């Protein structure tokens, strides 16, 4: 995940190759696919644009019903599991961007601590529900390898 700036006057061939025929242009490139931003340049529109560039399955929603399956998935994928705990009802963009940056190495799950159905996990792993928390699991699902609060 990164940001780049191209001076269309000095880098005409690159700007033309990217399809930026007018300036200023805002575009996103994910896996070689170019997407153009066509809305008013305000924070919410830019946030939605960046979010629309990302695959929808980067962060799995995790509850008491599926957390054991999620954490046990390391055996099939051979990737450590990361559980993100927060009070937001939707997965924050920062978490999605982090998951995208590390998608080849880690699998991410999101727990909405304000939702009924997260109490068992927060109690079992001693999660502070008033602060964002990250738990990283390797082979053992009973105890995280690392905790970041």
From TrEMBL:
InterPro entries per the UniProt record, alphabetical: DnaJ_C16_autophagy_reg (IPR052448)
Lineage top rank: taxon: Eukaryota
PANTHER family documented for this protein: DNAJ HOMOLOG SUBFAMILY C MEMBER 16
Descriptive protein name: DnaJ homolog subfamily C member 16-like
Organism this protein belongs to: Leptonychotes weddellii
